[in-house]
Amino acid sequence: MGDQRSLPVPDGLEGERLDAALARLFGFSRTRAAELIASGDVLVDGAVPAKSDRVHAGAWLDVTIPPPPAAPMPVAEPVPGMTILYEDDDVVVVSKPIGVAAHPTVGWTGPTVIGGLLGGGHRVSTSGAAERQGIVHRLDANTTGVMVVAKSERAYSHLKRAFKERTVDKRYHALVQGHMDPLRGTVDAPIDRHPSGDGRFAVVAGGKDSVTHYDTIEAFRAASLLDIKLETGRTHQIRVHMAALRHPCVGDLLYGADPTLAARLGVGRQWLHAVSLSFEHPATGEWMTFTSDYPADLAHALEILADEG
Q: Which ranges carry the RNA-binding S4 domain (predicted)?
């Protein structure tokens, strides 16, 4: 049984298409609104409408919003290429390979960090939602590098708080198109879901506070290698902020990167690597730093650029 909503069409939406009106009223994407209409979950004055119907002020809407599908549980199987950088009773630190999500989500059927740890016989904390046990931060499926997972309940609560309070040092290297001006700077711009509802995020007024510090390590002819420190950890934050500056990560076609350059450098994903992670150990209080080398595809792209002078 879904969530039932009944309300009149407000005056301000007079003459709007039904799918657009629903998107405005409930904060759905237009696509999601169209799906609800097609599945018979929307009635206008008691009748089944079409998504292109125009709505009239005062017409009565009955909308049934189905419950969100449950996320699948992790599949416990070893993940090739995922290496353990450090492990004790409280934490396990991994270097995550390409094509691996942090935990299962609706629509992701590929390997996960949690599944790989469970498949390798590693215990993880049972705090948090069942499908994301021990996950205190995430990397995109195609972003590689260092990630910490909590094994004890104490570590889970300590690290969750540390990430929230920004007492963790997260460093990334990103290869971006063009040259940064200035060479070093800070992007402070709020991020939220892109209004299109297509899975992208964007700089949006009223979005979540998002701060990215960058510094140029090396400038090549067509691209620049940046050292990036994240103050916040929003979904796709570096990718969105770099794209907003018109310097998308090389290979990041979702955010407007040049496919010709990506092909020439042999990069089939965003050139972005979580190169180091530092945090206070939840049990000992010791400040610990872990680093991860560039994977082969990213290293190869840099070699090509260096050879070009």
A: 16-59
Distance CA 79, CA 305 (A): 31
Per-residue pLDDT tens for 177-187?
Answer: 999 999 999 99
Is there a shared CATH topology between the 68-165 domain and the 166-309 domain? Answer: yes
Q: How big is the CA angle at 47 (ends 44 and 53), to the nearest 5 degrees?
A: 55
**Whole-prediction pTM value?**
0.78
* Alpha carbons 103 and 154: distance in angstroms, whole number: 20
Active site residue 192: no
Nearest CA to 119 among 148, 76, 152, 84? Answer: 76
Question: What residue ranges in the chain does DSSP mark as E strands?
Answer: 3-8, 42-44, 60-65, 83-87, 91-96, 144-150, 169-177, 184-188, 191-193, 201-203, 211-219, 223-230, 272-280, 287-291
The one catalytic residue in 53, 140, 188, 227 is 140
Which two structure tokens, joined as six digits, stand for 201? 């995020």
Distance of CA 124 to the CA centre of its chain: 22
| Tokens, residue 217 | 């390590």
CATH class of the 68-165 domain in this structure: alpha beta
Classify domain 166-309 by CATH architecture. Answer: 2-Layer Sandwich (3.30)
Q: Residues 86-145: pLDDT tens digits?
A: 999 999 999 999 999 999 887 788 999 999 999 999 989 887 677 678 999 999 999 999
